[in-house]
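Inverse folding, one chain.
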């Protein structure tokens, strides 16, 4: 492990003592899962990690946990026999080859957490050196102890840190059936119906917003077209006035010539004028027609209608962060882990623990 502190951490309690204890989020989730399934007989787990020196501080990192195969319990005292210890060593080499067993966790079904003399004896039997820890847990409380000055001393707080932990994920997948955690239980129809109703409401709202934007775009295009027609009309009006003045001048010229010439000459002159006038009118009209019949190209583009999808409801989507599990996400969003299976169903996950950083999950 590199000698630098994790970037994403959450403090539990008052962390003022040494050594500083850092527990990876998947490990904390796994211990909580065991705790929820512990009923009558205490359960246990070995803790895997490292002890390092950082910025003149002693730090213990717990990056893995191995469930005890069979913790011994005589009705009062808890113990670890040699077979359990050797099995834990083999599993450690299989799943966490880069770590060391640096302590253990005892999960009690109920009662007040108390460090009994038998627990001290067991710890000194297997972990009688600095940098080892003992965790006591039940459904309502937890206590952390560090071994220093040749005895177990209670710690006032610790850290939960988040990072990619594929080794612990793989171990949790293999162990989930043993501790009764399965992703295949049925989800209540009520949750699915409520989710679908929310989806429909969001779709309607999105469609209304798009329709409003579309109407605004069409209105803008119509205003631009009307302004263009107005400008063209004003320009053509001036040209038509000039044409009318030219026609009036030609008519006056023809009348004057008819008074001076004879009837035949007047007819010839009229014929010439008749030939000239259409030509002049043609030129004038041609110029006017060229201006009038050259409108701007019609805008046929319409705002593209984007189909509403689940991804438009970002407030209904959870983006997986480093160290997240579905149990952790459920607890973070809803306050407990009862929605794990609902999240699986909503996202088509056949294996609730196979999620990755950046993955978008729809929340029921």
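Residues assigned per position:
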């Amino acid at each position: 492990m590199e000698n630098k502190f994790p970037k994403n951490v959450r403090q539990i309690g008052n962390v003022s003592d040494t050594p500083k204890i850092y527990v990876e989020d998947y490990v904390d989730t796994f211990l909580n899962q065991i705790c929820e399934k512990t009923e009558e007989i205490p359960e246990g787990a070995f803790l895997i990690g490292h002890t390092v020196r950082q910025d003149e501080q002693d730090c213990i990192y717990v990056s893995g946990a191995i469930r005890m195969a069979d913790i011994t319990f005589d009705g009062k005292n808890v113990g670890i026999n040699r077979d359990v210890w050797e099995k834990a060593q083999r599993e450690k080499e299989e799943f966490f080859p880069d770590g060391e067993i640096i302590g253990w966790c005892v999960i009690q079904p109920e009662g007040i957490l108390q460090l009994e003399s038998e627990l001290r004896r067991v710890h000194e039997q297997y972990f009688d050196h600095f940098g080892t820890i003992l965790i006591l847990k039940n459904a309502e409380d937890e206590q952390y102890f560090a071994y220093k000055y040749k005895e177990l001393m209670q710690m006032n707080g610790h850290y939960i840190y988040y990072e990619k932990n594929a080794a612990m994920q793989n171990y949790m997948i293999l162990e989930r059936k043993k501790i009764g955690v399965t992703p295949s239980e049925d989800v209540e129809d009520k949750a699915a119906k409520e989710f679908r109703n929310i989806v429909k409401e969001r779709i309607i709202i999105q469609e209304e917003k798009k329709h409003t934007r579309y109407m605004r775009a069409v209105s803008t295009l119509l205003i631009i077209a009307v302004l263009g027609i107005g400008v063209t009309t004003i320009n053509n009006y001036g040209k038509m006035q000039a044409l009318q003045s030219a026609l009036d001048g030609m008519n006056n010229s023809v009348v004057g010539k008819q008074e001076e010439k004879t009837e035949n000459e007047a007819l010839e002159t009229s014929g010439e004028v008749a030939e000239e006038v259409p030509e002049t009118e043609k030129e004038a009209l041609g110029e006017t027609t060229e201006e009038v019949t050259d409108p701007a190209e019609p805008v046929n583009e319409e705002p593209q209608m984007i189909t509403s999808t689940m991804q438009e409801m970002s407030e209904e989507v959870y983006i997986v962060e480093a160290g997240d599990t579905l149990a952790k996400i459920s607890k973070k969003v809803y306050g407990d882990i009862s929605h794990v299976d609902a999240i699986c169903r909503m996202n088509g996950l056949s294996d609730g623990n196979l999620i990755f950083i950046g993955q978008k999950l729809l929340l029921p």
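The radius of gyration is 43 Å. The first strand starts at residue 9 and ends at 13.
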